[in-house]
Amino acid sequence: MKGIFTVTNMLETTTTTPSAGAKINVDAVCQGALAYMTFPDSKSADAFVLECKEGKHPEVIEHYEAQLHLDGAAI
């Protein structure tokens, strides 16, 4: 499939630091990561979520923080 696109408007974004009370819900982040991953079975997926909650997959939290510009938010 081929296509042509044109940029008609660009928005400037700014990053802000989270307020002192900002906190990341690790359960939701680890569970939500499953939407972008594949596993051979549900047991493997459940094991990944448990490991993620234990901090064995810090890249999941780092990716989430980077996407939402939440650098420095509490876990």
Can you give a write-up of this model?
With 75 residues, the protein is an all-alpha fold. It is 41% helix and 0% strand. It is built from three helices and no strands. It has helices at 26-33, 42-53, 58-68. The N and C termini lie far apart (43 Å).
Q: How many β-strand stretches? A: 0
Q: Supply the number of helical segments.
A: 3
Strand content: under 5%
Write down the overall geometry: flat
Main β-sheet: number of strands, strand sense, barrel status?
none
Structural class: mainly alpha
* Mean pLDDT score: 81
Low-confidence stretches: none
Please outline the helices and strands.
Elements: H1 26-33, H2 42-53, H3 58-68
Features:
mainly alpha, flat, single chain, 75 residues, 3 helices
Short description:
The chain is mostly helical. It has helices at residues 26-33, 42-53, 58-68.
